[in-house]
Amino acid sequence: MSKPTLEIQLQTLPHQPGVYQYFDANDKILYVGKAKDLKKRVSSYFTKNHDYGKTRVLVKKIVTIKHIVVETETDALLLENNLIKTYQPRYNVLLKDDKSYPWICIKKERFPRVFSTRRVFKDGSEYFGPYTSMKTVKTLLDLIKGLYLLRTCNYDLAQDKIDAGKFKVCLEYHLGNCKGPCEGYQSAEDYHQNIAAIREILKGNFKDSLSQFKNQMREHADAMEFEDAQRIKEKIDILENYQAKSTVVNPKISNVDVFSIVSDEEYGYVNFLQLSYGSIIRSHTLEIKKKLDETDEVLLQLAITEIRQRFHSTSKEVYVPFKVDLGEDVKVSTPKLGDKKRLLDLSERNAKYYRMERFKQVKIIDPDRHANRIMAQMKIDLRLSEEPRHIECFDNSNIQGTNPVAACVVFKDGKPSKKDYRHFNIKTVVGADDFASMEEVVYRRYKRLLEEEQPLPQLIIIDGGKGQLSSALKSLDLLNLRGKIAIIGIAKRLEELFYPDDPIPLYLDKKSETLKVIQQLRNEAHRFGIEHHRNRRSKGALTTELELISGIGEQSIVDLMTHFKTVKRISNATFDELTPVIGASRAKKILEYYKK
């Protein structure tokens, strides 16, 4: 399919958080932005009158819109930062400098310091973040400082230097903010217990710390110190909303390529995420047209080679959903959990959204193509002699054995044709006999179509197993339609498809679009039948109650129901309200009945 127009690209954007990228006619990146809702944010560029001339010029230059879907608004903010720093788009000005979001570092030292930093070094230290708000960082560090006494000096506290008395305690020790490890007043083991607790807080496991803050807030409130209580409440709010992990930035993961694939009968969609020093710097989805029945393994292997060559990737490691052979120079990993698996899930999420957008674009540009593809696939999957452009599905409803009814729903070109739906009240069957009921409604339906010379369906679907299918076949035999219309039965339990004179059922792939259309037909028939059944049951119940009143005939009941709508309103009506509808004599009878 050729590149969709800008209007179509806008129509098919998802209502999800993420980052959008604008490209010009030469495929050069113009602008990177973030959004809580991609569709709303991007569409606003093309619907508003912009005050700034620079924005108007930008909008005129946009030819292509690309996007990366992420899980949260925070991830979108961090990813935007990565991409702007990597590509330096012309119309981005805020994040082009060398500043970055803050991290909290637990320094790799004998007595580790804990501090904020904007630079990440590969020195074995632990880094938590990045954080989109410096306020959150300060709150966390204040929390840690309030709970644990840590050193702030940058001395090399080796044991031999402490033993030699090279250091003296500073003012922080005398103020009670440090236990003095520099003079040996605190052991390394005791200090590392505190660091272990701090590590849990930074991972987001700070339930005990929150409880302590809440106790402090209550103490201030009880002492009428409301300003202090409010300050602590603000810290609690920030901590409760704090997100400990980010999918798009992870310092533990270095340069790596992430690939995932989703596919259907015709196409494979391979998404590529490129990470540089733990940050996502590129996302690209490749659409591959299948020529034969290629497996996902074959498609993914071909796509990885193509994409890595196109983007000149030299990463020595790739993450993929299943093993593929990329030669001895590349390490292939298949993550099952943790941060690496989250990256793989993010890649798959973007592949799925890309596929959905392509489907939407096809429906807009060529509405018939989607239907043609499904019809051709159904013909193959169901072993039919012609495409099932007209399908009818039957379902019986006789809840608790009362008011047996049946429903026939009609799909044309894979879509519901509601004007052709039909309800059937069972006339010749006494009691709850699904087989006999099915035989009756199928016979009545196609006898009428033949008499009125209406077009017959290419496929009939019976909601039920072998029994219901056999009953329907009897009616087709009576009408001399056996072999002229394809007919199958679908059993609910295992989604088995039964064919006439074939004891072995057909099982379709659970992801098959053919099965999804059949399930949609079956569910729609069930819904339509239940709706009619309930209406009949309700109508029967209402009519029966009014018929119990002596002297109130059928016409009076119709007049009452037309005017009052419900039996409850009739029972609560006054003499003056009833009289204009059915006359004084009948009004008295109704009032006397409901008084009893």
UniProtKB/TrEMBL annotation:
Biological processes annotated in GO = nucleotide-excision repair; SOS response
Task: Supply the SMART domains for this chain.
Answer: GIYc
Q: Which GO terms describe its molecular function?
A: DNA binding; excinuclease ABC activity
Pfam families, alphabetized: GIY-YIG, UvrC_RNaseH, UvrC_RNaseH_dom
Per UniProt, which keywords does this protein have? Cytoplasm, DNA damage, DNA excision, DNA repair, Excision nuclease, SOS response
| Primary localisation category | cytoplasm
Which part of the chain is the UVR domain?
Answer: 207-242
Residues of the GIY-YIG domain:
15-93
Occurrences of domain UvrC family homology region profile (ranges): 262-476
Q: A cellular component term (GO) from this record?
A: excinuclease repair complex
State the InterPro entries in the record: GIY-YIG_endonuc (IPR000305), GIY-YIG_endonuc_sf (IPR035901), GIY-YIG_UvrC_Cho (IPR047296), RuvA_2-like (IPR010994), UVR_dom (IPR001943), UVR_dom_sf (IPR036876), UvrABC_protein_C (IPR050066), UvrC (IPR004791)
User: Which protein family is named in the record?
Assistant: Belongs to the UvrC family.
How does this chain assemble?
Answer: Interacts with UvrB in an incision complex.
Q: What does this protein do?
A: The UvrABC repair system catalyzes the recognition and processing of DNA lesions. UvrC both incises the 5' and 3' sides of the lesion. The N-terminal half is responsible for the 3' incision and the C-terminal half is responsible for the 5' incision.
Indicate what this protein is called per its UniProt record. Answer: UvrABC system protein C
| Species in which this protein is naturally found | Gelidibacter salicanalis
The organism's lineage? Bacteria, Pseudomonadati, Bacteroidota, Flavobacteriia, Flavobacteriales
